[in-house]
Amino acid sequence: LRNPAFFWHSWAHWTGKSCSPLPPCPPWFSRFGRRTTFVLPLILSIPLGLTVALAVDYLMLVIARLLFGAMLAGTFLSLYVARLELCDPPHRLMVTMSASFFWVAGQLFLPGLAVACGEWRLLQGAITLGLALLAACWWSPSLFLESARWLLATQQLEKGRRALLDLARGNGVSPENSSPTGEPLLAELDSWPGGSPRAEYHSVCRLFSTRVVWKNSLILGFTAFIGSGIRHCFTRNLAPYGPHFYFPYFLMAGSEAAAVLFLCLTVDRFGRRAILLLSTVLTGVSSLLLLALMQYLMTWLILALSVLGILASQAVAALSVFFAGEVLPTVVRGAGLGLILAAHTMGQAATPIMDIHHSRGFFLHHVVFASFAILSVLSIMLLPESSHRPLPDSMQEGETQHRPPLFHPSRHRRRQDQLPLLSTHSGASPYDPDTYAHLVTATKKMLDSRAGPAGTWGQGNPLSPEP
To answer: Whole-prediction pTM value?
Structure first.
């Protein structure tokens, strides 16, 4: 593992994963939808995986792994986005975190597969075989449906109608009488004025012309980069205390599972923004304590702070990606989330970079990322809250997402400054609109009668001014 070529292979693979969302996302996600951007990279990854397994020299291996990582990133991104758009708000978090558990299970299964294969070329061939079996089912649309939300957001009404009908039939719902108001489910699509409108596609460049959407994307990309980049500062402290059989690998996989479980139990209850803020604070505080007091702390306290920092940084990275998927509009969700995943993967590249240089500059790396973690605490306060809310579809809906107030009133009783000045009774008020109208009419009649038939107002009136 100390061979520099191993780290260059990891660097090439991570670079491919991080760079893949940048060029392909605008045309792929904006033009061809979620299903095509899943099937096409999956099919292309098969010959690239075989090329990696049969590489004859170092340059061929690096280039093939670079492209192979890019294709895997495209499949992962399309699956992540389609899963978000398929779920309703109450189940969105649990479905996404359940998929993260499968991701962790695959990471834990990989070392066993490597031991069974015995050679890295056979391992690469086994992975490519699994991808080929998955790609063999590409012809079945029922295994991976196109996102009806994306089709309707881009004004592809006919395709969106067919996708909704497929979903309704798959769930055993009748489109004719499924609406609670008794109207057909697709009546609005049928009654669209002027026929089917022209499809509207949006590229990732639209993000830069917005204000709120770009701000949210920038903050969440920054926190995802910090959550993945600062992790090396904590794992380095645990290396001397653990076994040497792939201890960092199993530690990171186990901590990711614990972080996902923590998010499942807390995010829906306390909100996305609050848990992201808490995780970032724990990451920054743990990093600063280890940075300033490492030589004065006891061994068990160093281990405790390092484990806490790993768990918190895993939660920050996972929640940042999930949060970004909820606040980005549907028309640019794939491309925008690709940029944020690219920032997340670039932070992961800090580990092989530091290992290549034998941890030279580790102190500066620790200082920079600890400062970034503290700085991101202030920026998280500018994010909106997306818990139990529908996904925004258009850019206009994304621009209306603003941060909620910092303090909310209690549910059970009002705050003191919201109490009325005069106490009200539970019964009907005597000053209802009808009573007030009768009072005004009677007052006007009284004033007209006192004015006299000649209209000489003020004669004999003690309140009238003297002539």
So the answer is: 0.78
3-state secondary structure the chain: CCCHHHHHHHHHHHHHHHHCCCCCHHHHHHHHHHHHHHHHHHHHHHHHHHHHHCCCCHHHHHHHHHHHHHHHHHHHHHHHHHHHHHCCHHHHHHHHHHHHHHHHHHHHHHHHHHHHHCCHHHHHHHHHHHHHHHHCCCCCCCCCCCCHHHHHHCCCHHHHHHHHHHHHHHCCCCCCCCCCCCCCCCHHHHCCCCCCCCCCCCCHHHHHHCCHHHHHHHHHHHHHHHHHHCHHHHHHHHHHHCCCCCHHHHHHHHHHHHHHHHHHHHHHHHCHHHHHHHHHHHHHHHHHHHHHHHHHCCHHHHHHHHHHHHHHHHHHHHHHHHHHHHHCCHHHHHHHHHHHHHHHHHHHCHHHHHHHCCCCCHHHHHHHHHHHHHHHHHHHCCCCCCCCCCCCCCHHHHHCCCCCCCCCCCCCCCCHHHCCCCCCCCCCCCCCHHHHHHHHHHHHHHHHHHHCCCCCCCCCCCCCCCC
Instruction: Tell me the per-residue pLDDT of 300-326, one tens digit each, with 9 for 90 and over.
Output: 888 889 999 999 999 999 999 999 999
- For 27-72, the pLDDT digits (tens) are 455 677 888 888 888 899 999 999 999 988 889 998 999 899 888 8
Percent of the chain surpassing pLDDT 90: 25
